[in-house]
What we know:
- There is one protein chain.
- Helices cover 70% and strands 1% of the residues.
- It is mainly alpha-helical.
- It is globular and about 60 Å long.
Amino acid sequence: MAAHASSALLVAALVWRSLSQSWVDSLIPDAIARTVVGWGFPLASVIGSASAIVAGSIAGRPKRALVADAVSVGATLVVVFALTLGASERELVGLIVILVIGLRLAPAFALSPIRPSSFIFALVFATYALLAGWHQAASLPLGDQVHYLLASDRLAHGSLDATIDPGLFRKLTTLDPTDADVATHVVNVPAGARTVQGYAIPVLLIPGWMAAGRFGAELVVALAAAWAATMTALILRDTVANPRLRGWVWAMTAFFAPLVLLAMSIYPNAFGAAAIATAYRFGFTAPIRRPLLAGAIGGLTLFLNPRDGLVLVVLVVAAAWYGRAHLVRFAIGAAAMFVLAIIADALIYGVPVPYAGYFFGTSQAQALTSAPSITFEFWVGLPAMLFDRTFGLAGSAPWIFIAVIGAVPALRAAPRALAPAAAAIVTSLLALSIYRYWEGGYAPPNRYFVEVLPLTAPFVAYGLAATRDWWMRVLVGVLIGMSAFAAFLLSAMPARALNDAFQSQLQDLFDVALGVNPLGWLPSFISVTPDWWVSAYLRLIPALAIIALLAWYGARKRSPA
């Protein structure tokens, strides 16, 4: 281990020295990208080696850790050498950055049996932090992100006033705020201008914002995402017996879309996922359940957004399955947070109702667009969230559909532990299907699904365990392979994850990289033409047929997970 540590420091110094030479300036024109590469690669090397040493110690295989880390270093140096071959555009540099991060951290993940949880948390946070570093060079805080930062800045200066600062807005985004920005993010109440999204997330972002600006704020989000990933590992440990299987599913949850993209973007979804996963673990799957604590942690969603509050309602109802005492304690914990949310919104907005800002903002958005925010058109929203080629799960995270295979086997094997999770997932999807902005705005795809993603992981594990026939394994392999490729591309080029109604950037990347896009046949539910629905619903037919096949296959199998 001492030799391993010494050689790791020597390698990191070598990488830093090679990237501090003048040739880097000419080959990487972008100054921010150059800074990230110059400091990020040595830091990734140090973190990778340190993690490998710790993982090798935990697993009792220090020599294997040294060998694996040495192979990783050799592969990393080959990738770094690729930078010397010619001037690189920022997106190409991004691909190299993600390769380096993946190569340096791969030994630790390969050796770790996803325990202890403290090590997993630290390792995932380090990965997300490195990705957030590249995010500074590769994407701007567009959409709602800039408004969370503006609110944090005002709070840091002791003010609740949410009036948009045009200078700071321009500095962060290079754009000027529009009337739509004001109408959808700022509400005027008797106490003054207030933010629509509430103040919970801005309060949490303050330490990071004050310490390191946007990068510091993204590190706070990375902490929440790492916590959600760690809780996912614990839920899998509680519900899945096969350690190798739960390790693979945990890795997909943590490093595939949608979570990995929301781990480096300033949205509330990672915080919601962390709260819901923690509440679910303590309330439903832990060996020793703590319903009072679970209800209180779940009640934190009352400070986030209404869709998280809906999941809380489902969990409170599901607590009745565990007996009256469990229900009462869970409900008391949630009720305590409900009272605090009422008090906070009464003081801030003058309305004693949780999510008061959202209610004000919804009316303003409806006035701006002359269209209701709640449409009840579930026949559009539900298939769109699932199958839209740009904004749906099938377009960037098809691995989640493995959960369809595992649904019946999981509920047969562990109904008490997993039936509440199934109810929360289905209810969340149905509720969001009647929301006009089902796509989540100008943000990474499927961000509304992130909150229930940790609850989906056990179903994916049971689905993998039930997949035994070669033809189904091929299909599942395609789903996982496309998800891994999508996560790689969008982590390297995070700006490509942001699309409007006329863009489909990830699908364009698939076309360029693969020649033939395996997901290009998926429908689009964005109504850019009067007859959009004809093509959408015709293309939906084979998608529904595949889902029916997966469900049928899973229903006739008994999973050994």
